[in-house]
DNA sequence: CTGAAAGCGCTTACAG
DNA sequence: CTGAAAGCGCTTACAG
């Protein structure tokens, strides 16, 4: 038998309106009745029904997350960040997985619309115009995290991949490297693919180094892609002395293959990773890597959404700073 | 302007009751009206309000997850598994983090009760009797994943830590090791601590090997704990030839420290990990480890909860099988 | 300061 | 096969 404000009203011999008022601290009742009602609520173990409340208030205090179904470690940090600030602000989070490439996005959207979420955060799914339309049609605040879209009006929070790739490459150049590879990148990925390639190329160019297409090894950001990349570099005798890896996992793959091939890191080959996930410090040698602030990304995203909900304002795009965490996988190259 | 069944009813010149019936496929209406209503709903872009529906049906099709606030990688797999089957069964998932040691559990519980979740899955938080009482008081199906409680009536799904530790230790013994360490374990952790210690001891004993308290290095399952453990073994000249690590991260810590100390793995020291997370295959050398089926755990947990909700039956405890994934960190010891 | 009443968007006996 | 009506558990003008 679940107990409602009606039960409290009966016990306190007041109307449900009054009960509602004191339970919500709406003001406009004397201390006596307040005390009585609060005490009875306590005694009866009353718990409010958020569904009923949301129904009349037309606001659910729910924020929806849509993310890919892959268990890459950094999603955990993003989600942690989101839920943490949601909780602090009195919101709850409803989570949905949109398949590996986000192909179930529309399905998730429908569910979240039916659940009447007040806001939406979409993690790491590259969006096309028709999907943007579907999202817009909900008419609620939303933000993209760690991804983007060709439509430049859309609010997003991420690190500038071009800049970060530029910085990583420059870091290697500053360490004396003149022949630098790029490993694990997906050419068709316009969010984490092409911008990083461009940043890499630009850094090379700005420092008077020539670029060779052979120095880029494509892949899917995975450990295996990293291993394959090094084997490829090896058989081609490419002569690279350093490699910019498009993820930490790719970097670990390079390190693993290097071990198999008897290539010493960083003595024979320097490696820089991307993301700075937990595996970076666990590598042997510990991995120098571009750090992305995933947790912060989640926190900011959620914070902005809640702000937008409460102020009925639009969310604004924000580029987050990255950072180079220096460990031991890059060495100064001596000519 | 959000559109409701009333709008559809008006447009179709029928009652909301009829609209509701066809939208729910309840039967008892002719094809004509059905077609008309469905078409109008489509045209108007109708989307049902789950809050209103839940309110009258007294069932939300919502399942709540409570988990610790730490971003250990395997939580992602568990949550993935849960949400996947929830989605398939028409349920949605609301996620809450209960702090590092689950100290905000009661807070989460209250929120989930207000949200009227139909079922509850609690991940990796060791529960005491008073917390169990709080959970029981919701009177909804629940299950614990990858954790347990002193109260043996409580439904849970996990791997048998004692058995797994026994198997890991035995595996090392079968590979010729006679002096085996245990690293990274928390003595005060009755779920992943003491049972693994006991399993380890028992395996030693069953194979006629003596046990020395010095061969156990306490820790918090972390990478750092692993490093410290190996340094301790080293300075004590303990003479171990293999070490059973209480997590993959501890194992990586051992490997990392070994590298610093010039100890070769597996030539000088064999290492076995626990969990078989993604880092296991990325280690150099690739890590042999006890595998826990995290994703399966999430799937089974969610499935059982939904079953319990629908059949109003209690969830039954299930122990999941573990597995030893052999890679290259353990070698046959020659005397 | 307090209550009666309407309403949020649905579902479901009960009649016909 | 279909509709009128009540009700799920709340909140909130509107009166007094």
TrEMBL record, chains A, B:
Annotated keywords: DNA-binding, Transcription, Transcription regulation
MF term (GO), any: transcription cis-regulatory region binding
InterPro entries hit by this protein: HTH_LacI (IPR000843), Lambda_DNA-bd_dom_sf (IPR010982), Peripla_BP/Lac1_sug-bd_dom (IPR001761), Peripla_BP_I (IPR028082)
Superkingdom, taxonomy of origin: Bacteria
Organism annotation: Niallia circulans
Name of this protein: LacI family transcriptional regulator
Domain HTH lacI-type: 3-57
Keyword Oxidoreductase: no
